[in-house]
């Protein structure tokens, strides 16, 4: 690399697997240190330190059973973050400076995150639900929430928002993956042509306006293959109306 720029990475055996078999732990190494040198001088040092906490027996002695698995992030010799996974509660606690807990993440039996709980009390918890096919069906964050519906072919066909509005898709047959039409309230819009986004009726609280924008058509047609969902903010009568336009 130019200017004598060198990046080196060290690994260590997988901690929890090493408890079962040392050879197995060495077969699955994990990153431990990364050093960045410029011109022979150390510019940055990044490292993970892994640890285990065992269950305490009634006599105060540590047993072989592992209660917590964790790792510490150190940058240039300073502890920044610590992650601890509790096997009994299936939660991951994230600490700053080994003292202040920032976030607690709860997982279900399928190792899917179902709850994100900030410990500051400033932000509300985020809760997620899944179906039997591991698809996200809803999420909630305070007063904000969205619910997703799927058809028999496993395609997303409906989105319901917390304010009572919804967005639905219809398909030509059971085999196509691109929707034929979009339904936003009482408005039906063909989903396979950019010109269909020339005019849309937005209904929310006291706003009921029609938006027409040739420039919007051009942008959407140019980026149709790149984006899946775009959030637009369009001023209407000195108010800002928000609209989700599906680029499919």
Low-confidence stretches: 193-248
User: How many β-strand runs?
Assistant: 19
Q: Secondary-structure element sequence?
A: EHHEEEEEEEEEEEEEEEEHEE
Give the proportion of residues in helices: under 10%
Radius of gyration, CA atoms, in whole angstroms: 26 Å
Number of helices: 3
- Hey, roughly how much beta strand do the residues contain? over 45%
Instruction: Describe the global form.
Output: extended
Largest sheet: 15 strands, antiparallel
Give the spatial strand order of the biggest sheet. 1-2-3-4-5-6-7-8-9-10-11-12-13-14-15
**Could you report the average pLDDT, rounded to the nearest whole number?**
77
Distance between the termini: 42 Å
Label the structural class: mainly beta
Feature tags:
57% strand, disordered C terminus, two-stranded antiparallel sheet, 3 helices, mainly beta, 248 residues, 15-stranded antiparallel sheet
Polypeptide structure, described:
With 248 residues, the protein is mainly beta. It has 3 helices and 19 strands. It has helices at 15-20, 22-27, 214-222, and strands at residues 5-12, 30-38, 41-56, 62-75, 78-86, 91-96, 100-107, 113-118, 126-130, 136-141, 144-150, 156-161, 166-170, 181-184, 187-190, 199-204, 207-212, 229-236, 239-246. Mean pLDDT is 77; it is low at 193-248. This is Teneurin-like YD-shell domain-containing protein. Residues 3-173 form the Teneurin-like YD-shell domain.
Brief description of this entry?
The chain is mainly beta and 248 residues long. It is built from three helices and 19 strands.
